[in-house]
Amino acid sequence: MRKQSILALLVAVLLPIGAVAQENATVILKSGEKLNAQLVDLGGVGFTLRVNGQERRVPKGDVAVIDFTGSDMTDADWSKVPSGQSMVLLRNGETVSGDLYDISGKAPLKILFKTASGDRTWSSSEVGRIVFARPGNAVATSGSRMTLRTVSACQATASDPSAIASVSRLG
Predict the structure, then answer these.
(1) Which of 98, 104, 93, 132 is nearest to 118 (CA)?
(2) Hey, is 167 helix, strand or coil?
(3) pLDDT tens column, 41-98
(4) Alpha carbon 135 to chain centroid distance?
(5) Taking the model in full, what pTM does it have?
(6) What is the pLDDT of residue 40?
(7) Which of 34, 73, 123, 130 could make an S-S bridge to 66, C-beta 3.0–4.6 Å?
(8) CA 92, 104, 17 angle in degrees (round to 5)?
(9) Distance separating alpha carbons of residues 100 and 166, to the nearest angstrom
(10) CB-based contacts of 55, cutoff 8 Å, min separation 6
């Protein structure tokens, strides 16, 4: 009886650890949709994610960015990504071009990238972002704030197309 109680206690304690041992990430699809998810795996069916407790599979070709930083990409970030190439942006500032080959393991995940100079492997804790393409609705930020003047100009433009010329002069 005592052994069964201990076994049940171990299962109750260890089972949730395995269930939450995946890596949190924002997965941005090429459509612009953002998924706050736990990244589980990359396999033949694409990415396996856990979104709101439900497993979801997303084809690799539908993903634009896997973001481990929790912040939007800036103009400086986008300038590091050549068009048509996949790239890893590491937290230490290094950028590496290549192809994402595999994601496996538990937190931190093991990320395998194939490059022209050979395979590179990182822990997900070393990776800031993996960029495949710019999403259709991506708006890079420079870190500046939108002013009330800019908001007013945008509202005027939306309601009166002839206001576009005056908005462009606002600079």
Answers:
(1) 98
(2) helix
(3) 998 889 999 999 999 999 999 999 999 999 988 888 888 888 888 999 999 999 999 9
(4) 11
(5) 0.69
(6) 92
(7) 130
(8) 95
(9) 46
(10) 40, 48, 49
> Residue 131, by phi and psi: left (phi above 0), alpha (psi -120 to 50) or beta?
beta
Report the alpha-carbon distance of residue 65 to residue 50 in Å, rounded: 16
Half-sphere exposure of 62 (CA within 13 A, CB side): 15
* CA separation for the pair 104, 122 (Å, rounded): 11
- Rounded to the nearest 5 degrees, what angle is found at the Cα of 75, between the Cα atoms of 158 and 157? 10
Q: In the 3-class helix/strand/coil scheme, how is 50-104 assigned residue by residue?
A: EECCEEEEECHHHEEEEECCCCCCEHHHHHCCCCCCEEEEECCCCEEEEEEEEEE
Longest dimension (CA), the chain: 82
Q: How far apart are CA 68 and CA 36, in angstroms?
A: 10
pLDDT in tens, 6-54: 444 444 444 443 443 478 999 999 999 999 999 999 988 899 999 999 9
Those residues whose C-beta lies under 8 Å from the C-beta of residue 166, and which sit 6 or more positions away, are 153, 156
